[in-house]
UniProtKB/TrEMBL annotation:
The keyword Repeat applies. Pfam families: Gal-bind_lectin. CDD domains: GLECT. This is Uncharacterized protein. One of its GO terms (molecular function) is carbohydrate binding. The keyword tRNA processing does not apply. Keywords: Lectin, Repeat. InterPro entries: ConA-like_dom_sf, Galectin-like, Galectin_CRD.
Amino acid sequence: MASSGVLSYPGGTVLPYRFPVSQGGLNHGNIVVVQGWIPKNAKRFEINLICDDDNWAFHLNPRFAAGFFESDRIVRNTKIGNGWGPEEDSGAFPLKKDSAFDIVILVQDDCFRVAINGQHYCEYNHRVMKDNIREVMIDGDVALITATQPRDTVQALSEPAFNVSVPYTEQLPSGIQPGTMIFLAGKIKKDSQRFHINLQSADIGSPYADIALHFNPRFKPKKQVVRNNMNKGKWGDEETKAPGFPFKPDTPFTILILVEEDGFKVAVNHQHYLDFEHRMANLSTINTLYVEGDVMIAEVRTQY
């Protein structure tokens, strides 16, 4: 069950990624959260709760079918004395390639409870003492945006912002590049008409401002998500074609923006929604995230 080794994503996190658990192991009520993007050529990835090299309390291992006679499955197991126990793999497969995901592991006295993309997925009874868990390790074919345990008991990949006021501005000191990911969670206002997310240059008020991506959901007069760019203060051609309109007033949402070599990938509510091809050659000048409009933002995370 060993994974493929060290993988590096441009501008992203080097895998395997490991972070320590506070002394005393994991306790009832602790939550481990892993969020990221599954590449379109993914084969498998894993999240491990580790006691030591020979003893792993929990191995969560999504595997994509590699051939006609295989099926997608999520394997759960425990390693004791460097030997694997019986696998568990019942349940549906809620993950998709080329899409965002979030996995939440809730520690209970008798088991781990796993939720995927906001839905309960499975329970896994403890086979070793949860108090002996010393670190979390993530590896495989996945691009991470964040991996955290609450109450600051582990290190995070990024420092999130919570319950921010809108308009919201965040500086991206080195600009954006392939591998940059931006995650937002919030709620649409009840009487919302529109809001927008810009990846832009800091001097947006100048006549020479640049916006690499303008992502603009509009509720009125027509429900549509407008995408555009601005080059030296001039708007480009709007794009509006999209597979439906995934936003509703007075409803929570998540948005994940992934920067790739040829464009932006945008996921809404953990599902790939659309692509927007780059119209600018120099992304290093795009050093500001800006959010404005009829929306409440509960959380913002960035991964360079």
